[in-house]
Amino acid sequence: MDNLRRWKRMRREKDPGLEAFLRDHEPYCVSACGRLLREGGRNHIWGRYNDAGTIEALLMHSRRSLFPVSWGTGPKPEFLDRFLNRYSIHAVQGLAADVAVLDRILAGKGLPLAEGIDYDLMALDGVPAAPERTGGPVLRGPAAGDMDSLYELQAAYEKEEVLPKGAEFNPAACRRSVERIAAEEEILVAELGGRLIGKINTNARSFTRYQIGGVYVLPEFRGRGIATSMAAAFARELCSKGWGLSLFVKKSNIPARTVYDRIGFKTIADFRISYY
User: Fold this and answer.
1) I need a labelling partner for 32 at 20 to 30 A (CA). Which of 12, 137, 253, 272 fits?
2) What is the rounded CA–CA span in Å between residue 159 and residue 216?
3) Predicted pLDDT at 51
4) Contact at 8 Å (CB) between 200 and 230?
5) DSSP letters spanning 219-256
6) Selecting from 3.40.630.30, 3.40.50.2000, 3.30.470.30, 1.10.760.10, what CATH number does the domain 138-267 have?
7) What is the pTM (predicted TM-score) of this model?
8) Using CA atoms, how far apart are residues 145 and 148, in angstroms rounded to an integer?
């Protein structure tokens, strides 16, 4: 089988092996699974087949991002040069080894890497134990009047944790993100003295898992165990309904990693996002 035959353009409705492959790799690619379920045919998806006709790797393009899944050391797909000549790429996201393969390909195309961020990919399956709580903020779901406060928390979170080097904060895009999260995702907020001081939400949902993101506590309220209480309550609520949980946390963010360790999350792989 030559290289042109090994890679094939795929569509969910026509290729049942696509969903089966993603389900097999689900803990490692919740974002890609979520894009498939939410956007369907609007994505570009290719599968690499082995000599037995089984999918062994996947590449998804969605909203200027590439998601490689289980790439390994296979040959460079010949279609990729043509594709990159037509579409601009903002980010590559996935397991660190898979992203490294695409980073080398993009470097060969002359695309400069703006920043690469390394994460621990963590997973939780099973309801976590509830940490002891004495006082502290009220943990609740969002209310209709919370949108402005949620925007302020999301804006602070994006500026501190999300924006790559050199990127400018976009208030309108942040507002749209908050509106989408409020409409489509699960959210828990921490309220103290009538003020929202923290939040946690999901940012993707795959077949059997939620991906947690957007965890933020205002700086002046840190060090009180609020993030741990908030994350534990949120995880218990989702896991009790039968969902598995995934997240990725910066390797340099020791306080956040400590929070997730306490709840019961386990590191399952090295994860990376490369920004272009």
Assistant:
1) 253
2) 11
3) 87
4) yes
5) GGGTTSSHHHHHHHHHHHHHHTTT-EEEEEEETT-HHH
6) 3.40.630.30
7) 0.91
8) 8
Q: Which sequence spans correspond to the domains of the chain?
A: 3-113, 138-267
Q: Which of 110, 156, 95 is nearest to 276 (CA)?
A: 110
CA distance 162 to 93: 13
Distance between CA 276 and CA 91 in Å, rounded? 6
- Report the CATH number of the 3-113 domain: 3.40.630
- Across the range 20-44, mean pLDDT stands at 91
In terms of Cβ atoms closer than 10 Å to its own Cβ (0-12, 13-18, 19+), residue 132 is exposed
The closest alpha carbon to 161, from 256, 269, 67, 23, belongs to 256
Two structure tokens written together for 252: 């340099």
Confirm if 80 and 48 have CB atoms less than 8 A apart.
no
User: How far apart are the two ends of the chain, measured CA to CA in Å?
Assistant: 33
